[in-house]
Design a protein that fits this description.
Elements lengths: L1 E5 L9 E9 L5 E6 L3 E8 L1 E6 L2 E6 L3 E4 L4 E6 L6 E8 L3 H7 L8 E2 L8 H12 L5 H17 L10 H17 L6 H8 L3 H12 L3 H8 L1
Helix pairs in contact: 2-3, 4-5, 4-7, 5-6
Length: 222
């Protein structure tokens, strides 16, 4: 399924919405390399995939999103076994960059992660309404876009500011905690809470840095 709508540029200098849509991708489907002229944000409803840019490769799972900045060369690919189903918005304007900053997104850290998956229902609801409007209700779509981004900001994962050095800081903090408390019943959930990040993000950090998960690191120290 593919659904896409394009709007002509409006006089709203704060936030312009250029296109939006939805796609349930086939296994292994990819798009790119390509360059966008505006900010392009995808929200993943189900499945998984990977975003590739000059700053790295970034796995994305359901409930997360990814941002493509203007003029960047990117490719994004659906997983070969569990392809993603996503919705997207393409925007620009005076406050667009600030919106994504407040979502803790940057070129170096383009993945949106929610603080609580269950609390993302509002954001997804607004996005579904946007796509359901088609291209006939421009003002309503723009209003829903503000509500969508507000919901994203309100439920962004705390402690994941968009700087690559934070990844190393989270890893150092986690490893130090394992060193100090390996003899206790240390769970992945408690370790993630100690680092102020979620479980899946902690596991991804360990996999990318060490090739194994935090549970395996705990066993090494034990």
């Amino acid at each position: 399924m593919h659904k896409s709508f394009t709007l002509n540029r409006t006089d709203n200098i704060e936030l312009n919405l250029y296109q939006y849509g939805e796609e349930n991708c086939d296994k292994g489907h990819s798009f790119g390399p390509a360059v966008r002229q505006h900010y392009l944000f995808h929200y993943v409803i189900s499945g998984t995939g990977v975003l590739h840019s000059e700053y790295g490769s970034f796995p994305v799972v359901a409930g997360e999103g990814f941002l493509i900045h203007p003029h960047d060369v990117t490719t994004y690919c659906a997983d070969k076994r569990d392809p993603w189903h996503y919705m997207w918005l393409e925007v620009d304007g005076l406050i667009a960059g600030k919106i994504f900053e407040e979502c803790h997104l940057s070129r170096q850290f383009p993945i949106y992660r929610p603080n609580q998956q269950d609390d993302n229902a509002d954001a997804l609801g607004y996005l579904r309404q946007i796509v359901a409007q088609g291209d006939e209700h421009r003002l309503k779509v723009l209003g829903l876009s503000y509500l969508f981004f507000s919901a994203l900001i309100g439920n962004r994962l705390q402690g994941t500011a968009a700087h690559p050095d934070d990844k190393a800081q989270h890893l150092r903090k986690a490893v130090k905690q394992i060193e100090n408390r390996y003899h206790e019943h240390l769970t992945i959930e408690s370790l993630a809470a100690y680092c102020n990040i979620n479980r899946s993000y902690l596991c991804r950090l360990f996999k990318n840095a060490y090739g194994i998960g935090p549970r395996s690191i705990c066993l090494i120290f034990a």
